[in-house]
């Protein structure tokens, strides 16, 4: 299984941050980990032009490839730059932009149509976890966010509990392992053996200090990292933990 360390810079980073990407590439030149950085759209083109092994992704795209959608950016446009991945359905977009599973499905489909890999984010809120609804919510999000054809092209799933994002709170290792195993089973039921090669990332307050124990869990194939991906020094330690896993 491919190991993936994906950094989501969110609304952070100007041109002078791109040196962090080059530093990562230098430090992990012979790594067996796929290293991916998703910077903001404003520096996406420059990031794609960097001549190194770090893959570049976008943080969002429109459901359509072109048309009268002022201010929007399509998967086709992202593909033209040379990016390889697009994050879809991040909980911040679900919460701030009203993205439903149905919209996430359309976005992940348009990403795959352009030959890019969607990183489909799912995760429960604290209320949902405290009410014992975690697996039901995860199951519904997986079902609703992926088309029946989704298993035929590369796709990545990121389990990101909403309450763990940017908070410093992380589920117990048991809880992470339980959700990842559940995701693997759900994907298997839907897509058969293909599901065994769909990378499952954990996201939410991954740091150098907790990365090794998270990566030791079964069915955890890497991480989607926010805050700790902004500086090469921090992200590099997480990548090293994944290399050693
Ligand atoms: P965090 O964000 O690592 O800062 O918690 C993760 C994410 O939102 O993808």
The chain-level mean pLDDT equals 97
Query: Any idea what the CATH superfamily is called?
Result: Aldolase class I
- Number of helical runs? 10
Ligands? 2-phosphoglycolic acid
Strand order of the largest sheet: 1-2-3-4-5-6-7-8
The overall strand count is 8
Label the overall shape: globular
The appropriate CATH architecture is Alpha-Beta Barrel
How big is the Rg? 17 Å
Class based on secondary structure composition and strand pairing? alpha/beta
What name is given to the CATH topology? TIM Barrel
| Strand percent estimate | 15-25%
Major β-sheet annotation? 8 strands, parallel, barrel
Give the end-to-end Cα distance, rounded to a whole number of Å.
12 Å
Helix content estimate:
40-55%
Query: Given this structure, which CATH class is correct?
Result: Alpha Beta
Which key phrases capture this entry?
single chain; 245 residues; alpha/beta; TIM Barrel; 8-stranded parallel barrel; 10 helices; 8 strands; binds 2-phosphoglycolic acid
What this model shows, in words?
There is one protein chain. The mean pLDDT is 97. By secondary structure, the protein is an alpha/beta fold. Helix content is 40%, strand content 16%. It is globular and about 45 Å long. The two termini are 12 Å apart. It has 10 helices and 8 strands. Strand 7 (200-203), helix 9 and strand 8 (222-225) form a beta-alpha-beta unit. The protein has one domain (3-244): TIM Barrel (Alpha-Beta Barrel), CATH 3.20.20. Bound molecules: 2-phosphoglycolic acid. The site of 2-phosphoglycolic acid has 13 residues, from strand 8.
């Amino acid at each position: 299984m491919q190991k993936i360390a994906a950094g989501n810079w969110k609304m952070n980073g100007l041109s002078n941050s791109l040196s962090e990407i080059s530093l990562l590439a230098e430090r992990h030149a012979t790594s067996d980990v796929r290293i991916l950085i998703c910077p903001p759209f404003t520096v996406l083109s420059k990031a794609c032009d960097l001549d190194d092994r770090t893959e570049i992704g976008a943080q969002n795209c429109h459901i359509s490839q072109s048309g009268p959608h002022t201010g929007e950016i399509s998967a086709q446009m992202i593909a033209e730059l040379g990016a390889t991945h697009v994050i879809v359905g991040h909980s911040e977009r679900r919460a701030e932009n009203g993205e439903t599973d149905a919209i996430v499905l359309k976005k992940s489909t348009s990403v795959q149509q352009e030959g890019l890999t969607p990183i489909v984010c799912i995760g429960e809120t604290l209320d949902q976890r405290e009410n014992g609804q975690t697996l039901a919510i995860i199951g519904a999000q997986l079902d609703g966010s992926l088309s029946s054809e989704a298993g035929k092209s590369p796709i990545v799933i990121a389990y990101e509990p909403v309450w763990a994002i940017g908070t410093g709170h992380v589920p117990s290792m048991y809880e992470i392992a339980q959700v990842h195993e559940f995701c693997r089973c759900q994907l298997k039921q839907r897509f058969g053996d293909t599901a065994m090669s769909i990378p499952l990332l954990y996201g939410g307050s991954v740091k150098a200090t907790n990365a090794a124990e998270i990566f030791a869990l079964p069915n955890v194939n890497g991480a989607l990292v926010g805050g700790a991906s902004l500086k090469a020094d921090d992200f590099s330690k997480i990548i090293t933990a994944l290399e050693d896993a």
